[in-house]
Amino acid sequence: MLNFSVAKFGGTSVANHEAMTACANIVIADPDTRVVVLSASAGVTNLLVALANGQSSEERIRLLSEIRQIQENILSQLKDESQVRSEIEKILAHIAQLAEQATTNSTEELSDALISQGEMMSSLLFVQVLKELNVDAQWVDVRTVVATDSHFGKAMPNDEQTQIQSDALLAPLVQQGKLIVTQGFIGRDPQGRTTTLGRGGSDYSAALLAEVLKAKNVLIWTDVAGIYTTDPRIVPTAWRIDSMSFSEAAEMATFGAKVLHPSTLLPAVRSNLPVYVGSSKDPQAGGTWVTREPQQRPQFRAVALRRDQTLLTLSNPSMVHAQGFLAQIFQTIADHKISVDMVITSEASVALTLDKTGSASSGTELLSTELLAQLNEIAQVKVDTGLSLVTLIGNELHKSEGVVKTIFDTLESYSIRMISYGASTNSICMLVNSNQANAVVNTLHKNLFE
Ligand code: ADP
Ligand code: ASP
Ligand code: MG
Q1: What is the position in ligand 1's atom list of the atom closest to the CA of 229?
Q2: 93, 218, 251, 268: which one has the fewest Cβ atoms less than 10 Å from its Cβ?
Q3: How confident is the model over 37-58, as pLDDT tens digits?
Q4: Is 108 in the same domain as 230?
Q5: Closest ligand 1 atom to the C-alpha of 42?
Q6: Per-residue pLDDT tens over the stretch 228-239
Q7: Which residues form the Aspartate/glutamate/uridylate kinase domain (predicted)?
Q8: Domain residues for 358?
């Protein structure tokens, strides 16, 4: 194993010149960081998504000028913008052209071509920021390395092909001692078309690159000083977990802890790659190490929240003692490339939630009229929205007595729409009304963690 790290800086960490300079100083202070993976500057991906969905010419002009302003703010702080200005202008012109196309023919392929441009700009600007601090870095187009399938908006990396391309193009540069700056979130399909890995996918890119390069670890620099017992924006008294296991972090990410993209842990677990999470604004504040063997495995580890859940209840009286009803439902949903999350069955009905983290970068609605029509042929369908999933994450939750009583006592004044307990020994999920979600998270945290 080579002795170097892959560092990823998220959107707020590269939001402006000052934030980029803080990141550059982190890279400079750690000679082991040889590969830097960047997100788009904060806000840019959302603006690009809006453009990709097709807009009136007035709205397009407004969105384009917002994107331009974010770039201008950084360019204007550079000592010498001339080197990078023309490249940024070219990308802005390309964005304008794709945005116009999106108004007449908005496809997932076009969306990815557009949405990927934020990372292209931030990475070019960051190379110049480093240069002005006397650090020579080599910009790499990550699409020459990360190979994916053609599932636009939620592409799956092709690990073997990525390994081959990394060995041929990236590893030699690292071995020559170059500092690499590249993009997260994006890849290229076998036809050479740009793809994206899904929102928040830069964490996944960083872990994937660390794996193929055989780096010693992945450093995720973000806007919080580690992984907390719950989202510190919801519960200010949440505290940092210094060391946790891959499986705990994977459960947290899966159930909504946005600080890590859920797929980040795949390469980490496969290759036993420690993941560090820390704050780029305050690197001295310390952070969380996610490893195979953490210091402790407490019964209650964290509370995660995932908003915007859709509950489908499908009933069909002839389901009683019938076979194949569930298979039919799941197949229909799978045909639409949607992942089912929670499932509960009763005598003549099945209730299931749909997971929006499985949806495309462009954020298109999960439930299409076509899917609903197909489901209606199998059963009577009821759709509930305005729901959130609150998940308690821990260890051996099934073994200890009184866990469920503790939770129910804690939440006695809230209505819980659905509960899932037993599928995993690491989590208990509760579906609640979104307007009560923050209160439920606060109450659970207060009673179980404080
Ligand atoms: P980046 O742009 O760096 O990828 P994200 O916004 O994707 O950053 O992720 C960081 C955010 O994750 C934090 O600001 C915080 O609000 C949220 N978050 C959710 N759950 C947790 C948690 N358990 N610990 C820390 N942060 C969390
Ligand atoms: N820029 C992308 C997003 O906003 C990817 C990322 O930041 O990880 O989703
Ligand atoms: Mg993120």
Answers
A1: 23
A2: 93
A3: 999 999 999 999 999 999 999 9
A4: no
A5: 2
A6: 999 999 999 999
A7: 5-278
A8: 301-448
